[in-house]
Amino acid sequence: MKKILVPIDFSEQAEYAAKVAAKIAERTNGKLLFLHMLDLPSDVIDPSNYGKNSNSPTTLLYMKRAQEKFDRLTKRYYLRNVEIEKSVLFHNPFDGIIEESKKLGANLIVMGSQGISGFEEMFVGSNTEKVVRHSDVPVLVVKNEIDDFQLNDLVFASDFDEEYKPSFKNVVEFANKFDAKVHLLRVITPTHFESSYKIKEKIKSFVENSDIKDYTINLYNDTSIEEGIIHFGKEMNADAIAINTHRKRGLTHILNNSVSGGITNHAIRPVVTFKV
Prior knowledge:
The chain is of the alpha/beta class. The protein has 9 helices and 10 strands.
């Protein structure tokens, strides 16, 4: 994780993400790329005419305020041991994050999630959800403050179909950087029942020839895929949950079901997504 992109809007959630990103940077000897997007109204600034139009003083004021906030943020104690590069750009947040992640060669994006609770709220209808769906690099979504982020136990939830094998290599690589144990999870629901024997054999075949170092195979019964993932993560006291995502189909497909409102108040752990 040599380059870790952290979108910053100076909210509490963004600072939660920055704190986790700092821990990852320390562990991997990485560099933090702080990015703030000034998505200003068209009547305030036309980016193509920056410095030329009559609104330049207003634009400079926005820029100055952003830099002042950055100065305060970068003095936080948890950033004292990491290298930081900060940028302020005039851009739509979603497009800007995706474009800058490619331009800067980011290996990971760490984002805060707004909203007080909920897995659905965390992803659906937000810039975070769009970044998760379109990013070519892993995206770690942080919702709550974690003072000392460690990745000892990572839950990887999947149905372990063959199409996920290529992206599973990225999951394993991510886990190995932290020497984390990977808990392979298949949730069984009443409407999607499969025999335990067949599922276990499928998972064994899935991980065969991979570089996974330390893992467990877990089958978990619950009323829905979503609740199963959340409940299992809670029982394991997992440090994070890993899942795959499709560019076009998003979160709905990875969970093999529609995202229900039944888990609205339970998704408190960081979630890292890997594009298929």
